[in-house]
Design goal:
single chain, mainly alpha, 3-stranded parallel β-sheet, 5 helices, 8% strand
Length: 173
């Protein structure tokens, strides 16, 4: 609105110099508004065009990086066994129709890193769909689909949910 007033002031001054009436009617206000919108569009267009191009370039870089990461099976090294058998657990996990597992540990102990490596090992062996919730897509390879909701996950898939207790509480609200 301020820019319209400035434009109208300029018109008034030009009219005064030429000895025209300085009164501005509604049609002239509308014309001034339209003129300033066109000027604004012309001035802002290059900025938004460059911004969009930069955004697309960044997206392409991220997608290219995601696609370049392949899955590599690297078996876990068992340091100590308190109970059970790692080989049997792995066989059950890889061959089961349905399993839910919870990774528990102190903050900073590597729970997320273990979960990501487990998903990578499963994908490299079985080539099934893998999903992750609670992460940024740009931080993961393209073969892990990062989603925001459990409803986006298909059947016969493996899922890693980071900070699951928070996610499940928020999803239920």
């Amino acid at each position: 609105m301020q820019s319209i007033n400035i434009y109208l002031y300029i018109i008034k001054m030009a009219r005064k110099k030429r000895k025209y009436s300085t009164k501005i009617d509604a049609a002239e206000k509308k014309e001034a508004d339209g003129f300033l919108r066109v000027i604004g569009f012309i001035v802002k267009s290059p900025y938004y065009l460059v911004k969009k191009l930069k955004s697309n370039i960044e997206k392409n870089k991220i997608e290219s990086r995601r696609e370049s990461i392949s899955s590599v099976f690297e078996d876990f090294k068992v340091i100590e066994t308190l109970k059970g058998n790692y080989s049997n657990w792995k066989k059950t996990l890889f061959n089961s129709d349905s399993k839910i597992g919870i990774i528990i540990g102190a903050r900073g102990s590597g729970k997320t890193a273990f979960g990501i490596k487990l998903i990578e090992n499963i994908y490299s062996q079985k080539k099934v769909k893998c999903y992750a919730i609670g992460f940024k897509a740009e931080d993961f390879p393209s073969w892990i689909n990062v989603v925001n909701s459990v409803s986006e996950i298909t059947n016969n898939s493996y899922v890693l949910i980071d900070e699951g207790e928070f996610y499940l509480v928020l999803e239920s609200l």
